[in-house]
Amino acid sequence: MKHGISQRKLGRMPAHRIALLRNLVSALLHHETIKTTLPKAKEAARMAEKIITLGKKGTNPAKSKAMAYLMPPHNSPTPSSSASSSSTFDPETFVAPKSLLPKLFNHLSARYVDRPGGYTRIHKFGRRQGDNAPHAIVTLVDGPRDLKLEMLARTVGKEGLDLIELKGNLDEISNDWEGLRDKTKQQVEKVLKYKNQDEIKEFKSKAKEFADYLQAEESAYGGIRKPNIDSEIPKYRRPGLTTPKSGKILRAGERLSGVSTHTTGLGLARGALVRTPRGKLSIDKTPRFWGQARLPEGVSAEIA
Predict the structure, then answer these.
(1) What keywords does the record list, in alphabetical order (predicted)?
(2) What are the Cα distances from residue 100, in Å, to 67, 82, 90, 243, 301?
(3) What distance in Å separates the CA atoms of residue 133 and residue 284, rounded to the nearest whole number?
(4) Taking the CB of residue 100, how many other CB atoms lie within 10 A of it?
């Protein structure tokens, strides 16, 4: 009979496994993001969900269970240290608190008061060099180190760059997330579901900041250097090698900011230029600055 298979064994004895998970969960609640192997990440995220649920209850039995499970946070001061009397995290001296209970039952419980679950998020992060073990990054959602929120803000800035150039303001085009792909819209609605207006405004400012960065890079390079050839001009009158040119020279396999990996060395090695996605006959994978990208379908190039 299959008894005692409620969790992964992780190749360790019971006492070692429990201590490992306690350490991972405590580190996750303290740093709000950790990197470990994928099996450990799944088990640590599962236990962190239960501990945060205890923090939302706020009862004395919940405090007793959380106190019995959590370990002192990393880099905690020694009892003989003069800074050991500090009970809160000091960003200037980076002295960690002795206990995670104040953060769990005050800060995290207030952050997730409206969220029914799903307090953690796992991102696959390649494989570890040496034993090729799958790596993963575990983060607490809606926190200052929410990786998906940062990357999604950049995606919104990239996809909405042409609309920003037309309308001049990200707030005007982001009320209904106009011009974004359907998949990006779903991700944005999912991430901002439990955000207040100030946090949504901060998300838009991050997207606008990255869009400004892409525009500044394009203007700094002067665009991509390409020959300006008119088909009506005879070949013997076309500009030659001695004609002055301006702009950035695009090297083979070079990746510009925001450009996909299809034209990079990794994309070429994978044969991404040869493969055609299902349901699409042809895709233009020419590398370009985002200011030269095509507008989404259904969006007019005229200023509204």
Answers:
(1) Ribonucleoprotein, Ribosomal protein
(2) 9, 20, 14, 67, 53
(3) 36
(4) 24
Which among 25, 197, 196, 194 has a CA at the least distance from the CA of 116? 194
182 and 214 in a single domain? The answer is yes
Read off the tokens for 80. Answer: 């003989």
Give the residue from 203, 213, 294 showing the smallest Cα distance to 258: 213
| Mean pLDDT on 21-38 | 94
Helix (H) or strand (E) run with residue 137 in it: strand 134-140
Domain annotation covers residue 180? yes
Q: Average the pLDDT over each of 39-43, 69-73, 75-79, 113-117 and give the range with the smallest value.
A: 75-79
Q: Are 108 and 167 part of one and the same domain?
A: no
Domain that holds residue 200: 147-221
Is residue 274 exposed (0-12), middle (13-18) or buried (19+ Cβ within 10 Å)?
Answer: exposed
Two tokens, residue 301: 């190039």
Domain count within the chain:
2
- Does the pLDDT of residue 96 top 80, yes or no? no
Whether 78 has a pLDDT exceeding 50, the answer reads no
Task: Report if residue 290 sits inside a domain.
Answer: no
Q: Do 118 and 71 fall within a single domain? A: yes
Q: Are 152 and 188 in contact (CB under 8 A)?
A: yes
